[in-house]
Write a structure and sequence with these properties.
By secondary structure, the protein is mainly alpha-helical. The protein contains 18 helices and no strands. It has one domain: Growth Hormone, Chain: A (Up-down Bundle), CATH 1.20.1250.20.
Length: 438
């Protein structure tokens, strides 16, 4: 039997777990994120077809996060009870069906209802995966693993942009359906298929993983027990559900995440429109150009996550990433930096914003365990994702309210400044937390 104290054995076990879990979880999150945000590409045709204003469309896009908010914590607690394998499969299958059904929307009420229901269906997926990773990885690897997992956000932009643009172009008019209807259908069905595969592929925890040897399972259990002991020694003793809601650290994390996610969804829902208005209205080219900021963000978030894990430092990694994102969101809105120059600024802003999100999750996972981890992570994610409602609505309202001869598409400097301030606030709150919260 291999010696669990052997560093080589530990490294091999870590790599084995990563090879088994991360590619599949990565695929799941790409599909989740694509189904959540393809409404941004559908907007290029859907908004005109259904005669929605920017404000109305922003509210509809954000309705997802209202359903998400109310069902996030219950969903995560249920996953801890029934197991990750069954619950993640349920989430993916139901959200795939509902996302596909959006192709039948023909009214404002229907759009709002389906976006809300999609949020209910997907509630618990992301925090569930974050909690699931705590069952396999200690704090020594968590920032890098979360960053790797969250590069799916960027890859969904890299892959989803050209695919969505191609669907809008090529499928428009096929069988009497508009391109945006095909978009929802063709990007929703893969989630149903992969959701069924979850039942065969995922294991709830190391103890049930037949692909691990007894020595490997023992090593993982030992390291996780040591991690829990460290949390208790550092004063991070929140283990019950109520503890999560009583902790000021959890509420501070909610505020940090809210500010960071404002930037994420502001960019996600409006990037196709910005590219369409400043570079090219062709959906296919919009998709290709949108690859640039997301690709840069994918590289940056992995590098920053790796740096944070190697140094063991969290707060400054988060705060500096947020500050860079804030500065370049503001610069991208300057009228003198429109078009490709504006896109360059948005690319740097995306890298900063995604690095903030990826490294952030090392904070709550380091201070919560047991039921408090399931509830606290879900609560932080649900509160933070309320900005997914606020962000597209605010940007849409600003665009509608500031249209004039000088700003035919609305004042984008003002709109993007909202994202900049939100990220800056997230960085400031992070630095205000005690240094030992890492």
């Amino acid at each position: 039997m291999a010696d669990a104290a052997d560093p080589g054995f530990e490294q091999r076990t870590h790599r084995k777990v990563t090879r088994r879990l991360m590619p599949f979880l990565f695929l799941c999150y790409i599909l989740a994120y694509l189904d959540r945000v393809n409404v941004g590409f559908a907007k290029l045709q859907m908004q005109a077809d259904l005669a929605f204003s920017d404000t109305v469309y922003g509210i509809g896009a954000g309705m997802f996060f209202i359903g998400y908010f109310f069902f996030e914590v219950p969903s995560n607690l249920l996953m801890r009870r029934v197991g990750a394998r069954v619950w993640i499969a349920r989430i993916m299958i139901t959200w795939g069906v509902i996302s596909s059904a959006t192709m039948f929307v023909n009214s404002l009420t229907g759009f709002y209802a389906l976006r809300f229901t999609l949020g209910v269906a997907e509630a618990g997926f992301f925090p569930g995966i974050i909690w699931y990773l705590t069952q396999w990885y200690t704090r020594a690897h968590r920032a890098q693993m979360v960053a790797l997992f969250m590069t799916a956000i960027a890859l969904a932009g890299v892959v989803g942009g050209p695919v969505s643009g191609a669907i809008l172009n090529v499928m428009d008019g096929v069988s009497g359906l508009r391109g945006w209807q095909w978009l929802y259908l063709l990007e929703g069905l893969p989630s149903v298929v992969v959701g069924a595969l979850v039942l065969r592929f995922l294991d709830d925890a190391p103890d049930t993983a037949a692909w691990l040897t007894p020595a490997e399972r023992t090593l993982i259990r030992t390291r996780l027990a040591e991690d829990d002991a460290w949390k208790r020694a550092e004063g991070h003793t929140a283990t019950g559900v109520a503890d999560a809601f009583r902790s000021w650290r959890v509420w501070a994390c909610c505020a940090i995440y809210f500010g960071a996610v404002m930037g994420n969804y502001g960019l996600t829902f409006w990037l196709p429109q910005i590219i369409s208005e400043t570079i090219s209205p062709n959906p296919w080219l919009v998709g290709l150009v949108s690859m640039i900021p997301w690709g840069a963000g994918a590289v940056a978030m992995v590098l920053v996550g790796r740096s944070s894990d190697r140094s063991g430092e969290r707060r400054w990694h988060i705060a500096l990433s947020a500050t860079v994102g804030a500065l370049f969101f503001f610069l991208s809105g300057l009228p003198s930096l429109s078009g490709w120059a504006g896109l360059a600024c948005l690319t740097v802003a995306t890298a900063g914003m995604l690095s903030t999100l990826a490294t952030f999750w090392s904070l709550p996972t380091a201070m919560l365990s047991g039921s408090a981890a399931a509830a606290g992570i879900a609560w932080i994610n649900s509160v933070g994702n309320l900005s997914g409602y606020v962000s597209p609505f605010v940007l849409g309202a600003i665009r509608d309210a500031t249209r004039d001869a000088a700003h035919p598409n609305g004042n984008m400097l003002l709109a993007l400044s909202v994202l900049a301030v939100s990220l800056l606030a997230a960085g400031a709150i992070t630095l205000a937390m005690p240094p030992r919260v890492h």
